[in-house]
Structures are given as C-alpha cells and as structure tokens.
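Support request, please re-run this one:
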Amino acid sequence: MDINTAKSVLQNTFGYADFRHQQAKIISELISGADVFTLMPTGGGKSLCYQIPAIVRDGVGIVVSPLIALMKDQVDALKLQGVKAEFLNSSQDHEEQNRVEQLIRSGNVDLLYVAPERLLSDYFLNLIDNITIALFAFDEAHCVSQWGHDFRPEYQQLSIISQRYPHTPKIALTATADMKTRDEIVQVLNLTAAKIFVHSFDRPNIQYRISEQKNNKEQLLKFINTEHNNDAGIVYCLSRKSVEATAQWLSEQGKVALPYHAGLANNIKDSNQQRFLREDGIIIVATIAFGMGIDKPDVRFVAHLNLPKSIEAYYQETGRAGRDGMPANTWLAYGMQDVIKLKQMTSQSSGNEQFKFITQRKIDALLGYCEVCSCRRQVLLNYFGETLAEPCGNCDNCLNPPITWDGTAAARKALSTVYRTGQRFGVGHQIDVLLGKQTPKVIQVNHQQLSTYGIGKEHKAEEWQTVFRQLISMGYLAVEMEYGALKLTEKSRPLLKGELTIQLKVKEYGKAKLARKSKQPNASNLSAQEETVFEKLKQQRALWAKERNVPSFVIFHDATLMDIARANPKNSAQLLNVNGIGKTKLELYGEKIIALLH
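Re-run finished. Output below.
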C-alpha cells in the first residue's frame, strides 16, 4: 500500500485535493506499521493523520479520546463522509453497545472511538484480542503528563497497550506540549522508537491581544460589540462564580451567553454545549472545564477575563478560535490580582513541591509574555522552541506598538547581577542585591560585597520585577526549572558587552485601549453577490443539520460554503473540485446545492 491509496481516500472520501504540512509523511509511516508521535496545532489536520491509515489498513482503528461528549459528533461527521465509524461510551444504552460490538466482531468498523477507561477494561481488551486492529490513536496525548494542564490519571495506564499489542502501530497526537510533557508522553505510551513529527506552533490567522484589567466586563462588551457582534466565541474565567456572573451580565446586555463549569448539573452542561455547537452566534462563558477538543471550526474569538495557568493552557485555549483557518481574535485582560490568586491556588494545591515549583515558573513565563513589548507571536513560538524570523504584524504590539523606554542600563545591571551571583539564585534575591538590601540570605552568601550590590536603587522592586520578566520573555535570561535560578543565555552576551540597546515596556502603559491601527481583513473576502449566496447556503445547511440532528459544521464547514459561493459550480463535476466535498457528500447534497445556486 503506497501513499497514492491514502491520497485517493483523502480526495474521494474527505474531499480534499492534497495533503497539508507533514500529513503525507505521518500517514505513510503509520500505514507501513511504524509508531508515530505528532505535535500539530489545532486546525492543522491532526485527525486525518490517523483516520486515513485506519481506513487503508486492515482492521479497526481504535481512537482513544477523553472527550466523550464529542464522540457522537465526530462519528456523525465521518459517517456523512461514508466512513464506517462508531463509538462506545457510557452515554449509550446496552442495546446500542451490543450493536456496535457486533459490528466490531464482524469487521464492519474502520474507526472506533473509545474513552481510555473503556479501552483498559478487561471486557473490552478481551473483545479486541480477537479482531484485527489497524492502529491505536491516542488523541489529546498531553493528558498523560502529570505536569500538563489536562492530566487524566487513566492515561498513565495506557502503557499496557504497547505491551499487549507490540506489533500494532500507535500514534500519539497533541496540539500543545513542552519538552518535559513530550518526553513523558513518549515514556508512558512506550513510543521510544516512534517517528516524531513536530509541526510549527504558529497559527497565523489568530490575532493575539492583551489588556490590563480596568473594568474587564465593560472591556469585554466593547470588544464583542465593535468586532464580534453575532459571532460565536468563548470567554474564559478563573472561577465558577465569575462564569455565572459574566454569562448573566452579557445576557442582560442582549448577548446569547451560556455558562459552563464543572459545578453545573450534567444536563445543563450538555444542553449549553450542544447549543454552542449547533447554533450560530452563541457565546460560552466557561472555566477551563470547557473546550478540550471542541471541534467547532467557526469560533471567531476567545477572550480571557483572567490569566490562564500557563502559556501551554493559553495556547491551547486560544487555539479554539479560527480552526477553519479564517481570521480570529484572542483577547486577554489580566491584573496582578490574577497572579496572586494563581500563586495562592498553587501553594494550596495537593501537588508535591516540584509540581508547585514548576507551576509557579509557568505562571511567571506567562506573565512575561503579557508584559513583553516585542511581537507576541515571536515570544509565544520561542517558548515552544521555535523561531519566527520577522514580527508577525498581527498582534497588538505589532499593530499598536506600546510606549517603551531605553532599558539598556537597567538590563545590563540585572544581567551583571545574575552573572556575579553565580547564576544560582532566583529573581527575588537578584532584586535584593540590586536594591542593596541586607537580607539574611544576602549576608549569608556575602553578596553585599558584590560590585552590583545597591546599584539599582533608582527603580522600585516592582519595576525590577517587570525588567526581569521582560528579560526572561525576550530570551536574555532563562529560568532553571528545578530551582528557579536565573541563567544568562548566549543572547545576553552582546547586551552585557554594550554592543546593543534594548527597549522595555513602560509598566504604567495603559494597555486597556482596544482600538487597532489595522482592521482585521474581511474574514470571507467575498463580493457582495458571493456573500448573498454564502448566507443562502448557510441557511440551507442549518436545515440539513436540523434534519440530521448534528451541528452545522458536520454538514459543511464555512470555508467549504465560501468556496462554493466563489466557484459557483454549474454541475456535480465542478462541485467535486471544492475542498471538503467528497463522493458521499456529493451524492447527498450535490444536486440540491446546484439547484440552490441556479
């Protein structure tokens, strides 16, 4: 079986002309029987990487996912494309589970979605012992990691799959994972021999913006009214109380806003999630309990009313916007009270000291990102070990450059202090030395004798905190994860030697301003006539979705409808050339679409 077989499935079943990014290589490895670990951002086409090999290889592809609430939609979407897909989870009655099990035994399933606890049950393992398994796909693989923001204990037990089925290819997929989490995924899932594919973390269609909290609800309303009226969006809050208050307040302002958090009754959570998935223009106000794996492609904005717990969490949560590749906005309002609250939550958590320490460092890194005055996308990608050569032109700092000051002298003092203290101490101690404080630790290690002792009295401690955070976020200093000591990077040498200057953001700079110099490009780039056709297609899609009781995007993505509006196909052959239309969807809707257009 070569890649041409896979490409035929891509075109005829899924309706796409060609593979994107590294899809072809990943699919080829899996088809040949190799293990794969792939890191690919949301919207990058991860699911095709295991769906196509599962169809091409003999047997059933078993997809392990923690997202029970979404399995039905995922399977419905595949069935609409002519794929023999099923799911097994606790939402089904006994009769339905028996039906699926019979299909599995008779070899009539290509893709089966299960939760990890189902997969690990003796009953299920005995069931699949007697069938041909095409592959195992571990979706949302970062759930393995104890350091990850979505840790699921049952994921830690998935190592038995490699032991029990050593010759069945496996693929682990995640949209976000730092090096420590990647290593843990490989170790727990026994993927040491796996081919590793790391795709760029860049989501160029997403605009990143950050404001200092003033009146965050009013700021949010202004953001929605001026840029996202009637758009679908997600608003994240830190607490359940804040979720309910914000949802109610937005509703009072005339928005369709629904709350979602772990404390709500299951039927309310399910109802709100289904409305968000199935209706247009719904805003979900949620804690981080909402969203992992949410497959709604047309979310146009994600707003945070509080600081998330880490850059990984921020990246994953903002990544729920613009999965269809169309322009989307993310906006975060933060204040120091968020930092204090997050640190208190960390210190009071049941985690061990190492866990608490790493969590604190992640909060610091995110704060550095918030305060940076250079291109946000460059800093974000740098955190994940990736370099963006040029500023992006699509973040607040690129579009509305912040007020800065020449921080060269302050930066050199900070870097010199790190060097002279032996690169073995954290930010607090460095600031004590700069301010000339006689703390017990300073005296104990004799740092009052250093040449940098007391040379920073022109700035307050909070200002030095800002300087250090910006130096960390800009890559001049690195935080040693285990103990939090600051270390000089190679990049700091020319700055220390006086070979370059550095601009730092003024701490008091009023970031609450939301107006931008550059207006976001029209999401659709459609002419007025094409826009009319697009709206007509959307209305028809909503009726088809209602008939099948599925979300609209399961029928067609917005991007597909826009392509139809632009191409104005006259017959089925022309319609088949549109991305997202395979043979099954052509049979179901082709004639109806042509009739609607002409």
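Residues 508-522 have pLDDT under 50 and may be disordered. The chain is about 45% helix and 10% strand.
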